[in-house]
Amino acid sequence: MVQIALTGIKPTGTPHIGNYLGMIKPALELVHSYRALYFIADYHAMTTERDPEKLNRQIYEVAATWLALGLDPEKVVFFRQSDVPEVFELTWILACLTSKGLLNRAHAYKAAIDENIRQGKSEDDNINAGLYNYPVLMAADILLFGTHVVPVGQDQKQHVEIVRDVASSFNSQYGKVFTIPEDLIRIDVMSVPGVDGRKMSKTYRNTIPIFADDQVIRRQIMGIVTDSKTPEAPKNPEACNVFSLYRYFAPPKAVEETRRIYLRGGARYSDIKKELIVLLLERFKEGRRTYEVLLRDKLATERILKQGAATARSIAEPILTKVRHKIGIDQTDL
Ligand code: TRP
pLDDT value at position 331? Predict the structure, then answer.
């Protein structure tokens, strides 16, 4: 039987090249070997996003990005988390089975506390219960669909471990209902550098958006931080922020050639930046058209998401029915 791969995409920013290389591209490749369920984790975003207009825009931007980059809604169950109410029922059930201590140890929550302490504030300052329960909602997302593998970034590894814990305790207490999921982390694209050399992340404001105006993309790339070596000086390509992006977009032969020029001397950063601009604009040219059409036609996107949600609910329903039966809430329908 073909296994289920499921992942959630948090709509907390405009999708950028780091998202593309680290998540979107590998997830779209998995579609050939798994039954893929990909969803927009809008209620996860709500733990941090309080601006309704911005949240709404980001939901559609993320949906349009995935569709424009080739997600085929006939092959992938593509939906919005909030359209599947079963997720939230399961969240409560799982919350009642999750020890508070387990959530106390979650990295994201601990990091928020540490930051408060560092700033001399009270531990819980500005920390909402949604953030605290974040891993439980994620457990519901994953367990509700009998997920086998969860393609995520390294930063989500602990969350998947928590989900495994929660699933195992349910299974041992009530009998096996849940599949124990595995994380699927691609080590080769773990860290895509942003224009300042740190990991590309919206928190650092160092991103290159996938479908921005040509002008924005040009400006960002020309602004990539480099050292002050002369073009003639031999350089280490692996230590160069421009090369680190270039190698993902240039054809393999060009990458090898450029690598040689770096090592031997003669690589001019501004030339490689210009080449990278052309490569990026070309790579996303077709997608950009679809992206723009979808952003103008929200109803088209909405139809796709609603269709996906209907399929997702049909997968979720028998599992939730089984859970309700096992825990003693409703034993009439089995
Ligand atoms: N927490 C994930 C992130 O921040 C998003 C997410 C929500 C998710 N639910 C999920 C990922 C379920 C995988 C499976 O990126």
Answer: 84
Q: 277 with 55: CB under 8 angstroms?
A: no
Nearest CA to ligand 1 atom 7: 8
**CATH no. for residue 97?**
3.40.50.620
Q: What is the DSSP letter of 154?
A: G
Give the domain range for residue 240.
214-283
Q: Are residues 220 and 243 in the same domain?
A: yes
Q: Whose CA is nearest to atom 11 of ligand 1?
A: 8
> Is 147 in the same domain as 108?
yes
Q: How remote is the CA of residue 100 from the centroid of ligand 1, in Å?
A: 20
Residues in contact with 132: Cβ distance below 8 Å, sequence separation at least 6, in sequence order: 103, 109
pLDDT in tens, 238-295: 999 999 999 999 999 999 999 999 999 999 999 999 999 999 999 999 999 999 999 9
